[in-house]
Amino acid sequence: MAATDIPFYQPAGDECEVFAHAWRQQLPVLIKGPTGCGKTRFVAHMAAQLGLPLFTVSCHDDLSAADLVGRHLIAGGDTRWCDGPLTQAVRAGGLCYLDEVVEARKDTTVVLHPLTDDRRMLPIERTGEVLQAPPGFMLVVSYNPGYQHVLKTLKPSTRQRFVALSFDFPRPEVECEVVRHEGGVDAELAWRLVRLGGQLRQLGGHDLDEGASTRLLVYAARLMASGMPARRACEVALAEPLSDEPDTLAALRAVIDTQF
Ligand code: ADP
Fold it and tell me: Which residues form the ATPase dynein-related AAA domain (predicted)?
């Protein structure tokens, strides 16, 4: 694959090396971190880097094992089997990425467990097939520990099957590179946005679940690159998405006003 086809990813540390080692050793990887900090981009980058087809599933509370493995579909009176994304990834020897895996229904662990230990197999109950995952196959899951509550967490028996990487908002030099590259703005503007992001994240005492993500800083940069006045761009990208509370919004706007 040409380098230009590889999605841009600015590393924060040795995560690319850890991931490549895990893949070579056929170990599954768990990525934890807040929303919009680069988890999905990292996985897309690594899949392209390693030359693996990528099958991404955004998990939700209705997602079942059948959604991952596949199901029989009825078309024109015929019944035919249709592989789900996990099965497709196993057959193709690719990378299956389950985003926000803790949201998925508990029955999904039944199919994930035999794939994440040294058996590396996927039993397809409905067809009676048992697939042996080829060496290229890798399972990667992510979740946001900030959203956790007691009912939505990974059981130790599941999480202890993964090599785990912790992601967080990148340090300023790294985030500046991301905002510059992804937002299409110059380094000076990128720095101002990153500084502002840091200040917004420090805003305590308000009903903010999470601070402004790197993704939102990129949005603000893109709106500015498209010609939107800086203050308005920050308001719609860095204040409004974070809260509905008038007091909190006023506090966010006050911080924005100190930078733009
Ligand atoms: P997550 O999966 O953690 O919610 P994403 O990977 O979708 O977050 O990141 C959101 C956006 O932020 C990406 O589309 C990209 O523009 C940008 N981004 C964040 N971190 C990085 C990074 N380290 N390198 C490149 N882009 C990044």
Answer: 28-162
